[in-house]
Amino acid sequence: MSLFTSKKERIRFLKFAFVGVTGTIVDFGIMNLMSLVFGLPLVWAQAISFTIAVINNFLWNRFWTYPDSRSKAAHHQLIQFFMINLVGIAIRTPLIPWLDKIILNVLNNMQFNLPLTNSVISQNPALAIVIGVVMLWNYFANRYWTYSDVPVEVDSKQNDPLTELSEEKERKV
Fold first, then answer.
1. Buried-most residue among 41, 47, 83, 114 (CB within 10 A)?
2. Residue 141 burial by CB count (10 A; 0-12/13-18/19+): exposed, middle or buried?
3. In this structure, is residue 170 part of a structural domain?
4. Could you tell me the maximum CA-CA distance found in the chain, to the nearest angstrom?
5. Separation between Cα atoms, residue 113 and residue 156, nearest integer Å
6. Amino acid 16: pLDDT
């Protein structure tokens, strides 16, 4: 896998992850705003926050992580990016209330005396877990579909055992 063999791909992954952090901040902020201030149910609040975070992430990835991805029109990439993220939300939407319920039960059984309610506290680790799961899906799906026009580069100084064997045989001949 090129992520392990190419410095440039590792840098792209780190940029993608950093963009994901900005999206996570947007996601958490909007979810809590929608849920706590506007009283939307968690499923709707996280769907809205997810959509806004996706737009944030697409723009950052298009212009910073993959600036050399220009052979595809931006609107085509946006559609691909959204399709991948729709699969992500299909993974995320049933997972978040399920995890929230488990975490809430654990918190209720522990009977902490905290300034926030257990339901507010439980939503955030549930969201953090699903963000991690969906981030892995998003990175690999986007790298090999949305940004497929960017060649996967392998470091030229990489130690490839097959290349080393063939070079050694050539030197002996």
1. 47
2. middle
3. no
4. 77
5. 57
6. 94
Task: List the domain range (segments joined by +) for residue 76.
Answer: 2-154
Can you tell me the mean pLDDT for 11-19? 93
Q: How many domains does the chain have?
A: 1
Position 164 in a domain? no
Phi, psi of 163 (to 5 degrees): -65, -45
User: Tokens representing 115?
Assistant: 């300034």
Per the domain annotation, does 166 fall within a domain?
A: no
The answer to whether 131 and 96 have CB atoms below 8 angstroms apart is: no
Check whether 74 has a pLDDT greater than 60.
yes
Ramachandran assignment for 124, one of left (phi > 0), alpha (psi -120 to 50 degrees), beta (any other): alpha
Q: Do residues 18 and 67 lie in contact, with contact meaning Cβ atoms separated by under 8 Å?
A: no
Q: List C-alpha distances in Å: 71 to 4, 57, 66, 67, 76.
A: 26, 20, 11, 11, 10
Enter the tokens of residue 31. 């979810």
Among 3, 1, 6, residue whose Cα is nearest residue 158? 6
| pLDDT tens-digit readout, 80-134 | 999 998 999 899 889 999 999 999 999 999 977 888 889 888 999 998 899 888 8
Assess if residue 30 is contained within a domain: yes
* Closest by Cα among 63, 86, 99, 96 to 138: 86
What are the angstrom distances between the C-alpha of 148 and each of 16, 81, 156?
15, 12, 21
